Amino acid sequence: MKKMRERLGRIQADAGLARSHGGTSSDLHDQDDDISRRETWSDFREYIVGREEDREAVVSALLRHTEKELSVISIHGFGGLGKTTLARLAFNAEPVIRAFDCRVWIHVSMKYDLIKIGKSILSKLEANCSGDLDHLKTQLKGLLKDKTFLIVLDDIWEEDPHELLKLMDFLNVGAKGSMVLVTTRYEKIAINMDPVLCHRLESLSDGECWDLFKETAFVSQAKEARLQHIGRDIVKKCKGVPLAVRSLAFVLKWKEGVDEWEDIRDSHLWELEEKQDISFESVLPSLKLSFQHMSATLKLCFVYCSVFPKGSYIDKDLLIQQWIALGFIRLNEAFHPERRGEEYVKQLLGMSFLQISTTQTPISRKCIEAPHVFRLHDLVYDLARSLAMVDLLFLDTESNLKVSSTHSDCRYAVLTNCNPTTLRNNMMRKLRALHVNEWKQEKIPNKIFSTKFLRVLNLSGCSLLVLPSCIKQLKLLRYLDASGMQDQTLNHLSSLQNLQALKLSGSLIGALPHDMGSLEKLRYLNLSGCSNLLVLPESLCSLGKLQYLDMSNCSAIKELPPHFGNLFSLSTLDLSSCCDLTKLPESLGSLQKLRVLDLSNCWKLDALSDSFAKLDHLKGLNLSCCYQLKELPELFGNLETLDLSDCHKLQKLPESISGLKNLKVLILSDCWELTVLPESFGNLKQLQYLDLSSSQISALPESVSELVNLEHMNISWCTDLHNLPGNYGNLVKLEELNMSYIGNGNVNIPKGIAEMSNLKILLADGLINWSWENEEDIVFFNALSSSRSSFFFTGENKPSDLSIKDNTLQVGDLGRVQNLAEVEELQLSKRRQLRSLIVSGHGYGTGTELAQELVPQEAVLEKLQPPRTLERFELLGCTISTFPSWMTDIASFLPNLAHLELRHLETCGCLPPLGQLPKLHMLVISDMPHIKEVNQEFSGGARPFQKLRNIVIENMPNLEKWHTDATVSGNDVEFMFPVLHHVKIHKCPKLRFQPFLPRSVSLEIYRSNQVLSSGVRSNGHLYYMPTIRVLIDSCTLSSDGLMGLQSLTSLKFLGVRHCKGLDNWRGSIAMLTSLKSLDIAMSSVPECLGGVTSLECLKIHNCLVNYNTLEQVLHLTALVDLSLCCSHPTKLVNDQEVNWLTNMASCLKNLVNLELDNFIGCDRLPPLGCLEKLRSLTLRQMPDLKTVHQDISGGSNCLPMLQTLKIGSMPNLERWTTAHAPAAHAAHSAQSALSV
C-alpha cells in the first residue's frame, strides 16, 4: 500500500493523474469534462502543411516506370514528422490508385517478423494466411503474379541487411513496375532498402508550424490577436514536429486565458527534454503536456489503449465498450455513455493521440461515414506504456519476463501464446481486463476464470471449442469477446448477470439461449457472421438496455421476432447481408431511439412498412443492394445519410425526400428504374455527396444548382441524361464532378462551371459532342477535363513532341510504320497519366513494293502496350488476324479499363477474353466480318463482366452463335452478363444467343431477325435486372421470337418499327402484364391487342388498322394516351368509325391525350364530353368531315380539362358549332392552346 501511494504521488506530480486505489470510483469522473464542446467527425479532415513538394516527389517516384521487378522507395525521418501521413497521401493519390492492380498497407513496427508480415499481406488480400514462409510466398505469388502492386510497410525498425534482403525476396512476386513504399526512422534502413530512392523528411519551418497551429488553436481572430505571441513561443519549442504542434494546438483550442497558455509555454517539462535530441527514444514534452491537461477520466481511457499491441488497429465501438465496462465512463441516466465515449475518442483524435486508420474509405467518400478504426502513433503508444507501468503485463512466447510479486498489482494483462505455467494466481488477483490474443493450447487455464474482479475478457484469439463452464464464476464480468467460438450452444451465458457487452462474431452458434433476456444489463451485442443462427429467441426482445445490435451476415435468419420493437433503447441496428430476411416486423417503428439502420444486401426484402416513418431520430439508413425493394415509405426529417445504391426495382423517391433538411449523403447509383428526381430536390441544402451514377435519370431538376454545400457529384454512366439545366456556378463548394459517359456522349456543358472555384477533379470521359452557352465555361471545361494529343506515323511529328501531361492520345496510320524503333520511342506503357487512347490503322500502303518495306500492323500493335492507368481504349481499322499478347491477358495489363471499342477489324477472326476486366462499363464490337462464334472463352474465367452496363454489337454479318453461359465448375453455371443496362444489336442477321439472350434493362434490335429467337432467361438470381424497354426495328418476327418477347413479364415499353409477323401474336400477348406503353409504326398489329389490359399508352402510326383492331382498343380501359394513325386509307362501312368513336368515348374514360389521324370514313364526331380528363385533342385527315356540331360536347360540360386542341388536314370542314355563349365560355375555360 505504501509503494502504491508513493507511485500515485509520482504520477500526480508529473502528470496530474488523480486515481484512487480501486481505479473505478466515482471521484475519478469529472462532472464537466468539456464534453459539451463537441466536434463533428468532419472536423477531423486532416489539415496538412508544408508537405506538398514531398507528396509530389513520392507520387512521382511511385509512378515512374521501371524495368525492375520490384522497386523500393523509403521515407525516413525521426518520429512525429509525418512519415505515415505522407505515405498515406501518396497511397490514396488518384494517379497511384489507377497505376496499380492492388494496394496493401501493413504496419510493421518494432517487432519484426517476416512470417507475420506475409500473413498480414495475405489477409489484406482476403486469402488464406497459414503455413511456413515458403508456403506463404507461394500463396502470395499465386495472387500477385502478373500484377503490379503497391505495398506500404509502415514503420520498419529492422536494421539487419540480410533480413531486409529476405523481405525483398519474399515480396518479389509481381509484375514489373511493382513498388514497396517504406517508412522508417533510420536512414540506415532506408539506404539498405535502396540507396537511390530515399526521401528524407525534414522538420517543418517555424512559419509552417505556425500555420498548422493556428488552424486548430484559434477559433476567432480576437483570440489570435490576444494570444499570438505566446502561441509562437510554444510553436518554436515544438522543434518543427507536426505531431507536437497538432497535439498542443488542440489542447489550447479550449483555453481562453493568458495564464493557461503561459503555463504550457513555461512548463518544466520542456526543460527536461532540452538536452535530448528528438528521436524515437524521447517522449516529446508536448505529448506529456497534452496528457497533463486531460481530464482524469480521459487519462484513464488513454492509458488503457496501451493494452493493444503497438501499431495495431483499434475498433472504436469495442474500445468504448471496454471503457464503460471498466467504469471509466459511468452509467448514468443523465447522459448516453456511448456518446460520451465518442467524445473522448474525438478528443484523443484532435490531439493526434489517436489517428484514423489508413484502411478507411477513400477521400471522395469520407463524408459518408464516421471513421471507425484507429491506431496510436508510436510515440504516443510509448507514452501510454510508460504511464501504465506495472498496471499492464504483456506475456508471450518470446517474453523472458520473470513474473515477480510486483505483478500482483497489475490491472490489465495481455497473453500471447505464453506458457500456462507462467500464470500465477496472485497475478490474477486484482486483474480488471484480460486479453488473450493468440492461444495454441487446447484449453485456457481455469485460474483465468477465478479472477473475481475481472470486468473485461477478450478471448477472440482463442477460437474456443466450447465456452468453459467455469466462466460462470466471473460474476462481475461486463465485457466478453468470444468471437470465432466453435460451440453451437451457450449454456453458461445467462449466469453472467452483469454482462454489458457481448461479441460472438464468426461463431458457429445455431441458437441463442432461450433465457437470453435475463442479461438485463446488456447494452452491446455483436452476432455478425453467425451464419448458422436460424432464429432469435423471443426473450431477446426484453433486453430493454440494448443499444447496439450487429447481426450482419447472419445469412440464415429469415425473420425477426414480432416484438422486436420492444428494444426501445436500440440506437444502432445492423442487418446487412441477412440474405434470407424477407420482411421486417411492424413493431420496428417503435424503435424511437434508433439512429443507424443498415439493411444493405437484404436481397429478398421487398417492402418497408409504413411504421418506418416513426423513426424520427434515424440519421443513417443503408438500403443498398435491396434488389426487390420497389418503393420507400415516407421519409423522416433527421436523416443525414441515405444509401439506395443497387435498389434495382426502385421507381421513384417519395416526395418527402425534399424535407430531409439534414441530409448530407445520398447515393442512388445503379437504381435502374429510377428516371426522375422531384423538382423540390434543391431543398436538400446540406447535401455534400450525391451519386447518381449508372441510373436511368433522364433529366436533373433545375433546383440541383441550388445545392450550395455539395462537394462531390457523380452522374457518370447516366446514358439517358443529356441536359443539365440551371446555373451550376452556385455550387461553389463542389470539389469533384464526374460526368463521364452521360447522354451517350452528347451533353451540354453545365452553365456556370467556370465559377466553381473549388472544383479540383472533373471527369468527362466518353463525351463526344457537347454544347455550351458561355465561352468561359468551355475554356474551363477543356482545361480541367482533358489534355489531348495526336500522333501519326507519317514522319512529320516525333514522339518527343508529346507532352507527358496529355491524358488523351490518338495514334494513327499504323499501316505506315517502317521501323519498330519509332513505335518503341512512344513508350506508351510508361505514360501513366494517359487515360484515353485511340489507335487507328488507317493509311496502310497499297503498293506491293511499299508494303514489303512496312512493318505488319500486328507487330506495331504489340509495341503499343498502353499503361495500366488506361480507362478508355478504341482500336479502329487495323489489319490484324490476332490480338497482341497484352490484349489476350487484358485484365492483367489494363485493369482500369472502363470503355472498350473494337471497330473495323475486318481481318480478325476472334475476340480477346474480356470478361475479367474488373471495371469495364461499355463494350462496342463492330464490323468484324470474320467472326462467326463467340464462346465461353470470351468470359476469361468465373464471374465475368461484373461491371458491364452497356454492350453494342453491330454490323457483324457472319456472327451466328454467342454463348452466354460460362461453366464454372461441375454443374454450376454463371451467365456472361449479369448486370447489363443497355443491349444494342444492329445488323447481325444470323446472330443467336445460346442458351439465352442477355438480360438487360433496355434492348434495341435492328435488322437482326434471329436475336429474339434465342430464348429469354428467367429472372434467376435476384440481382438480374428485369427487361423494361424493348425497341425492335426492321425485323421479321418468328413464332419463336414472339415467344421470347412474351416471356419478358417485366416489360413496360415495347416499340416496333417496320416489322413483319406481329399480327401472328395472338392471345399470348396478354402475358405482358406489366406493359404500360406500346408503340407500333409501319408494322402489322397484334390481333388480340385488347388482352394487354395494363396498357396506359398506345400509339399505332402508319399501320393498317381494321375494325377488329379498333374494337380491341376499347378493352384497354387503363389507357391515358391514345394515338391512332392509319397508313392505308380504308373507308370503313356502315358508320363503323363513328360508332367506334362513340364507344371509345364511353369506354376509355381515363384518356388524357387523344390523337386521331386518317379516319377517312368519319363524317361526324360523336359526343366526347364524357372524356372529363382529356387535356389534349388532335384531329387530322378526316376529309369527309364538314361540320362539328355542338353535340360533340355531350352536354353543357364540354371537355372541362381540355388545354390543347389541334385540327389539321380537313379540307371540307366548314363549321365548328359551339354552345350558346355562357355554356361555351364554361366549356372551354381551361383551353390554353389552339392550333389549326
> Assembly state here?
single chain
Poorly predicted spans: 1-38, 274-283, 360-368, 400-405, 843-852, 1019-1023, 1220-1229
Q: Please give the radius of gyration in angstroms.
A: 36 Å
Structural class: alpha/beta
Specify the number of helices.
28
Q: What is the approximate shape?
A: globular
Mean pLDDT: 82
- Share of residues in strands: 15-25%
What percent of residues adopt helix (DSSP H or I)?
10-25%
Q: Tell me about the biggest sheet?
A: 18 strands, parallel
List how many beta strands DSSP finds: 52
First-to-last CA distance: 106 Å
Domain R13L1/DRL21-like LRR repeat region: 806-928
Domain NB-ARC: 52-221
InterPro entries: Apaf_helical, Leu-rich_rpt, Leu-rich_rpt_Cys-con_subtyp, Leu-rich_rpt_typical-subtyp, LRR_dom_sf, LRR_R13L1-DRL21, LRR_R13L4/SHOC2-like, NB-ARC
Protein name: NB-ARC domain-containing protein
Could you outline the blueprint of secondary structure elements for this entry?
Elements: H1 2-15, H2 52-63, E1 70-76, H3 83-91, H4 94-99, E2 102-109, H5 114-124, H6 133-144, E3 149-156, H7 161-171, E4 178-184, H8 187-193, E5 198-200, H9 206-217, H10 221-237, H11 242-253, H12 258-265, H13 268-272, H14 285-292, H15 296-304, E6 314-315, H16 316-325, H17 337-350, E7 354-356, E8 373-376, H18 378-388, E9 392-396, E10 412-416, E11 433-438, E12 456-458, E13 479-481, E14 501-503, E15 524-526, E16 548-550, E17 572-574, E18 596-598, E19 620-622, E20 641-643, E21 665-667, E22 689-691, E23 712-714, E24 736-738, E25 746-748, E26 761-763, E27 769-771, H19 775-785, E28 788-792, E29 808-812, H20 820-824, E30 836-840, H21 848-853, H22 857-862, E31 872-876, H23 885-888, H24 890-893, E32 899-903, E33 922-926, E34 933-934, E35 950-954, E36 961-963, E37 965-969, E38 972-975, E39 980-986, E40 992-994, E41 1000-1006, E42 1029-1033, H25 1039-1046, E43 1053-1057, E44 1077-1081, E45 1097-1103, H26 1107-1113, E46 1121-1126, H27 1136-1147, E47 1153-1157, E48 1176-1180, E49 1187-1188, E50 1204-1208, E51 1215-1216, H28 1221-1227, E52 1233-1235
Parallel strand pairs: 1-4, 1-5, 2-3, 3-4, 9-10, 10-11, 11-12, 12-13, 13-14, 14-15, 15-16, 16-17, 17-18, 18-19, 19-20, 20-21, 21-22, 22-23, 23-24, 24-26, 25-27, 28-29, 29-30, 30-31, 31-32, 32-33, 33-35, 34-36, 35-39, 36-40, 39-41, 41-42, 42-43, 43-44, 44-45, 45-46, 46-47, 47-48, 48-50, 49-51, ...
Antiparallel strand pairs: 6-8, 7-8, 37-38
Helix pairs in contact: 2-3, 5-6, 9-10, 9-11, 10-12, 11-14, 16-17, 26-27
Protein name: NB-ARC domain-containing protein
Pfam family, one: LRR_1
Domain Disease resistance protein winged helix: 307-384
